[in-house]
Specification:
The complex is a heterodimer of chains A (408) and B (299). With 408 residues, chain A is an alpha/beta fold. In chain A, 40% of the residues lie in helices and 19% in strands. Chain A has 2 domains: 185 residues, Rossmann fold, CATH 3.40.50.2300; 170 residues, Response regulator (Rossmann fold). In chain A, strands 7, 8, 9, 10, 11, 12, 13 and 14 form an 8-stranded mixed beta sheet that branches. In chain A, β13 and β14 form a beta hairpin. With 299 residues, chain B is mainly alpha-helical. Chain B has a domain of 204 residues. A two-stranded antiparallel ribbon of chain B has the order 1-2. The longest helix of chain B has 27 residues. Classes of the chains: A alpha/beta (408), B mainly alpha (299). Chains A and B meet through α1, α3, α4 and α6 of A and α3 of B.
């Protein structure tokens, strides 16, 4: 008897599947709602859900059911939640995660299950390079070293020839600095010194002293969260501001950092695929709507999940919302050129699952109402993750690390 | 009577793959793996009176070694043996340093040793992948099937549990318990106290390493969080919740904590607070752990 009951329950999901495209589209969203990355995690959920509210929770006539799980900023928990969403929740595809290690863990899991997994924030270079997977797509996201290259180009054109970098000492930092250093050196500039400090450095004064005396034309800083806030404050209070220009990776001057800061953050230049201070009408409508809903300007986490959700929704519309058919869904996502998104210009994917953007060089400026935001000062069209390098040759060089910041 | 219970328990555990859908089976696998870790902690905390905070690091070292070795082309079974051997080697080093201390000094020393391992895994990017961790490729062929993996974990776990049970009931285990009660008296009676503690430490480390190797097969991924302090604390907490000084307490503790985490986190993002409150309640009302509470009730 028991055995038969077991068979009946096992058969149930198969029967549901046989009903075809009548039920809701089930999406599993993972975000760190607790742990070190919790504040960004909440903005992931805000941006993602905001998109589905703007389309009334329906794609191509089908309802959308989003299940949110907390990955606790921990890769083991992320894995467990991915298993729960896929094996128990029977979601059609997965979205989200913030920290690179959580994304890498989930990517390794979906390699076995084949579940489509979309990662608008996970920037680890190799996920769309050396160890890319057909079902892991970085919709509306970027690979870590992607935008440091146009920034290096811009820096060189400003006449900067000698640069120092300062960065958090982990892979995300190594990759962003590597992109900058390799490009800047290939143009003929020199990276005189690279400072690597542990995550959650409370005192930046030793670094500021060395940076002030390094004899450089400009500084490139790769910082996230509270480290970014502290570095920018130290940069201003040690009198470097006004003497040595500061360029940042996009996280360093992201809204999640500068919305609580004052004059010390003004003037920082960074490169990104989004600029909340852009004059583009769609971007402005999105920023105003986000501000109205959440009383803050959208950060990297919010805008990329809004845009990522839009990308997949647009792709689903072209295939009759057939979310069950993974191959078709992935092919549609790859074929979709996203237009009308807050990113501004139309965006499409390269052959490796990473988007090609018109990259903005942005400067932190004050709005008339006193809030700080990133306004574009220059645009580099069609920046892909290899920008200027031949993909296969590029991938033969090692991944960026402390030891490898481009060939010397 | 006891044999009947144990047999019934084993049959129930062995039939899980027929009853549970794949996600719940994964949770069951995790419970079995962590129960071995909790039991290995219990071996020291419950029998030798030395509470370690480094077993997460020993466990995770084995996980790292299995994944690194397998990636280097070592067959999976041999990689697992290498993982256990690495955990054993690490325990020898830790044991030499730690066994002459006791009480809070032992706790802090093992905590520091564990942190060293965590630091190495975080910093040695070329080998450990740093913060990003390492992705394994172990779940292929025979191991790809989660039911078979569960049965493998169950068989290994049962053998390890039996080994630990035999160990604590042997004359060696009896000596350990006596050392816990009065090391000075045991020394006066001519027993080599540090040698016994050292042997217990290494044995406990080997068991933790075996659990870590199983975890490598199960998770197929490892990052510094696997060797971090919370992992050690979790193992200890499971041992305490189940019942210190009772080998099967580890199984009960692992079941309660993991099941509770699964259940509560589905309803609230404040699940860590709920876990904390539960742990406090157990300390207050069942200081001997849940198994201790059961035994007291049945007497």
């Amino acid at each position: 008897m028991k055995r038969r009951i077991v068979l009946a329950t096992l058969a149930a999901p198969a029967m549901l599947r046989a009903q075809g495209t009548s039920g809701p589209i089930k999406i599993g969203l993972m975000a760190p709602l607790t742990g070190v990355a919790a504040s960004g995690g909440r903005e992931i959920v805000e941006g993602f859900q905001m998109y589905f509210e703007t389309i009334n929770g329906r794609i191509g006539g089908r309802a959308v059911e989003v299940t949110v799980e907390d990955d606790a900023s921990n890769p083991d928990t992320a894995l467990q939640k991915a298993r729960r969403l896929v094996e128990q929740g029977n979601v059609h595809f997965l979205f989200g995660n913030l920290l690179a290690n959580t994304g890498l863990a989930v990517a390794n899991y979906v390699r076995g299950t084949g579940t489509p997994y979309f990662i608008p924030v996970i920037a680890a270079d190799d996920l769309t390079q050396r160890s890319r997977l057909p079902n892991v797509v970085r919709v509306a996201g970027y690979s870590a070293s992607q935008f440091s290259r146009p920034l290096a180009d811009w820096a060189y054109k400003q006449g900067f020839r000698r640069i120092a970098t300062i960065s958090q000492d982990y892979t995300f930092g190594h990759e962003q600095c590597g992109g900058f250093a390799q490009k800047f050196t290939s143009l003929g500039g020199r990276v005189l010194q690279q400072f690597w400090h542990p995550l959650n450095t409370s005192d930046f004064s030793p670094y500021m002293g060395q940076l002030a005396n390094a004899g450089v034309d400009a500084i490139f800083a790769m910082e996230t969260g509270a480290d970014a806030t502290r570095l920018i404050q130290a940069y201003a209070s040690f009198g470097l501001k006004g003497r040595i220009p500061l360029m940042g990776a996009m996280n360093a001057s992201d809204q999640s950092v500068i919305r609580t800061m004052g004059a010390e953050a003004e003037g920082i230049v960074s490169a990104a695929h989004f600029a909340e201070g852009s004059t583009n009408a769609i971007t402005q409508a999105f920023v105003a709507d986000y501000d109205r809903r959440f009383q803050k300007l959208p950060s990297l986490y919010g805008f990329s999940h809004f845009s990522g959700a839009m990308w997949v929704a647009e792709a689903l519309k072209t295939i009759g919302a057939d979310a069950e058919n993974r191959e078709r869904l992935l092919a549609a996502v790859r074929a979709t050129t996203l237009t009308g998104s807050p990113l501004g210009a139309p965006v499409s994917l390269d052959a490796y699952g990473n988007p090609v953007y018109d990259a903005f060089i942005r400067r932190v400026v004050r709005r008339p109402d006193g809030k700080l935001w990133n306004a574009p000062i220059e645009t580099y069209p069609r920046v892909d993750q290899f920008w200027g390098f031949e993909p296969e040759a590029y991938m033969r060089q090692p991944a960026y690390s402390r030891a490898f910041q481009g060939p010397r | 009577m006891r044999a009947v219970f144990i047999l019934a328990g084993l049959v129930a555990l062995a039939s899980m793959p027929l009853l549970l859908p794949s996600y719940q089976l994964g949770i069951a696998s995790e419970i079995l793996i962590f129960s071995v870790l909790a039991m290995s902690v219990n071996l020291l905390a419950g029998y030798a009176g030395r509470t370690p905070l480094c077993h997460g690091a020993i466990f995770g070292t084995s996980t790292y070694v299995v994944i690194i070795a397998a990636a280097a082309g070592v067959p999976v079974w041999a990689a697992c043996l290498l993982g256990v051997a690495a955990a054993g080697g690490l325990s020898v080093v830790f044991g030499i340093i730690a066994v002459r201390t006791s009480g809070v000094y032992f706790l802090l020393l093992t905590l520091a040793l564990g942190l060293i391992i965590w630091g190495i895994c975080l910093r040695w990017t070329g080998v450990t992948g740093g913060e990003n961790g390492l992705r394994g490729d172990l779940r292929q062929g025979w191991l790809a099937d989660s039911q078979r993996l569960y049965w493998l974990i169950l068989v290994v776990g049962a053998v390890l549990t039996f080994a630990m049970w035999r160990l604590v009931r042997s004359p060696f285990g009896l000596t350990l318990r006596a050392i816990k009660d009065s090391p000075s008296r045991m020394a006066a009676l001519g027993h080599d106290v540090p040698a016994h503690l050292f042997a217990a430490f290494v044995a406990s480390g080997l068991f933790a390493g075996a659990a870590g190797a199983l975890y490598a097969l199960f998770n197929d991924f490892v990052s510094p969080t696997t060797v971090a302090l919370p992992q050690s604390v979790e193992g200890l907490l499971m041992a305490i919740v189940g019942g210190v000084g009772n080998i099967l307490g580890g199984l009960v503790g692992a079941f309660v904590l993991i099941a509770l985490e699964q259940f509560v986190s589905a309803y609230t993002e404040r699940w860590l607070s709920v876990l904390g409150l539960t742990a406090i309640a157990i300390m207050l009302f069942a200081p001997q752990g849940l198994l201790g509470l059961l035994q007291r009730k049945s007497q």
